[in-house]
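Example for tutorial group B:
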């Protein structure tokens, strides 16, 4: 059972939004600022991990501690984001 997932915010200068790159199946975020991005990520990512990455039998056979995923949240390089 995979316990570590990655989310990266990437700045799209043309669209003027941050969008997500992630190994969490189904996670697609677009947000005007990093605060909004992080709020959406924290609301949606854990549920998507449970729904799309683990089966009911996997969830049933593991302890609660083993089910808590780690989400590595990588902020963008703001030097490039504002250039």
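The residue assignment follows.
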């Amino acid at each position: 059972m995979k316990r570590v997932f990655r989310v990266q915010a990437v700045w799209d200068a043309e669209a003027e939004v941050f969008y997500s790159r992630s190994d969490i199946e189904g996670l697609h975020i677009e947000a005007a600022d990093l605060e909004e991005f992080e709020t959406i990520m924290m609301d949606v990512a854990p549920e998507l991990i449970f729904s799309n990455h683990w089966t009911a039998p996997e969830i049933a056979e593991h302890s609660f501690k083993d089910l808590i995923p780690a989400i590595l949240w990588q902020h963008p390089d703001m030097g490039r984001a504002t250039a």
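The mean pLDDT is 89. Compare this with the pattern of hydrophobic and polar residues in the output above.
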